[in-house]
Design goal:
Blueprint (H helix, E strand, L loop, with lengths): L2 E5 L4 E7 L11 E22 L2 E24 L4 E4 L7 E7 L2 E7 L6 E6 L4 H18 L2 E5 L1 H4 L10 E3 L10 E5 L24 H14 L2
Parallel strand pairs: 8-9, 8-11, 9-10
Antiparallel strand pairs: 1-2, 2-5, 3-4, 3-6, 6-7
Length: 222
């Protein structure tokens, strides 16, 4: 059997690090990957529960996924890795891997109870505070744990109610499920914004706009 791993630590990468030659005999020498954007709805309902003191009411949330939107279709030789998209902002992906014209493996990104890392490159402390407030809200929405790569955050306890794990900005550790970079990124040797990080450009964008584009662009435009 072939072994595919789906890596969300820096964009989306499909690794095929084990190619079973015997299994592939008389079969295709490539695999196909379809990536989708998953529309998610959050349903909230008020539930009543009897207890010893009477009736208590709680708000319960259930998540349901609607139709998927196809983003890319790619073919790749067995034994080779594939980056289906160069996008670096948050995309709630669903991935289908096909081999020999049959669905071989599927995966839907799910941050719940997993570690999500943010590498932060703020221009000043005010921007850092703005971003950490948004990350705190993201943590509550996703029910995930948060790691932060930033020298200021790593050197203080002020954000410990948000950051479960802290690293210096240039730390190379990648022991997390999803990795995102927040900052202002440009194409090499130019002042043109890198649309892989800034899908809606940078013109007239403030600190809140920048992080919202990276976290919520794909939940508002499609």
């Amino acid at each position: 059997m072939h072994n595919f791993t789906i890596d969300y630590t820096d964009g989306l990468v499909i690794n095929n690090n084990y190619n079973d030659v015997e299994f592939a005999k008389d079969k295709q020498s490539h695999y196909m990957v379809k990536t989708y954007f998953v529309h998610k709805k959050i349903k909230r309902s008020l539930q009543s529960h009897p207890d010893q003191l009477g009736i208590t009411a709680t708000i319960e949330e259930t998540h349901s996924s609607s139709d998927k939107t196809l983003l890319t279709t790619n073919n790749c030789n067995l034994g080779c890795w594939l980056m289906p998209s160069f996008v670096k902002h948050f995309v709630p992906y669903h991935v289908d891997i096909y081999y020999n014209d049959k669905l071989y493996q599927s995966d839907t990104m799910d941050c719940k109870y997993k570690l999500v890392n943010f590498t932060l490159h703020p221009k000043d402390d005010r921007e850092l505070y703005t971003w950490m407030n948004v990350i705190e809200n993201f943590k509550k929405q996703m029910h995930c744990d948060i790691s932060i790569k930033n020298n200021t955050v790593a050197s203080t306890t002020e954000f410990d109610h948000i950051a479960d794990v802290k690293y210096n900005t240039d730390d190379t550790n990648k022991q997390y499920y999803l990795g995102l970079h927040i900052g202002r990124f440009y194409q090499p040797n130019t002042q043109m914004p890198d649309i892989n990080y800034h899908p809606d450009q940078l013109h007239n964008k403030n600190s809140l706009d920048i992080i919202n584009d990276i976290l919520y662009y794909y939940t508002t435009i499609i």
